[in-house]
Amino acid sequence: MCMNCGCGDYNERHKPTDITADDLMAAAKGHDMEMEQAADNIHQGARDLRQQERKAS
Fold first, then answer.
1. What is the CA radius of gyration of the chain?
2. Cα(16)–Cα(52) distance, rounded to whole angstroms?
3. What predicted TM-score, i.e. pTM, was given to this entire model?
4. Tens-level pLDDT at each residue, the chain (57 residues)
């Protein structure tokens, strides 16, 4: 789905900024972890950043 847009085609890069399954797999492999764990870590990081932004405003 490009992993970020939700289209369902996990390795289609519609725009240069899209994240594909291949991108996520490479990032996970670079840290010797499963792709799902890498995605979970990204999600948690996004939550943490949102909370930090709310506290700052």
1. 13
2. 28
3. 0.85
4. 589 999 999 999 999 999 999 999 999 999 999 999 999 999 999 999 999 999 998
For the chain, domain boundaries: 2-56
Query: E strands, the chain, where?
Result: none
Ramachandran region, residue 27 (left: φ > 0; alpha: ψ -120 to 50; beta: rest): alpha
| Secondary element (H or E) of residue 43 | helix 35-56
Please report the sign of the dihedral spanned by the C-alpha atoms of residue 18, residue 44, residue 21, residue 2.
Answer: negative
- The letter for the amino acid at 21 is A
List the one residue out of 45, 40, 14 whose CA is nearest residue 28.
Answer: 40
Angle at 31 between CA 41 and CA 1, to 5 degrees: 55
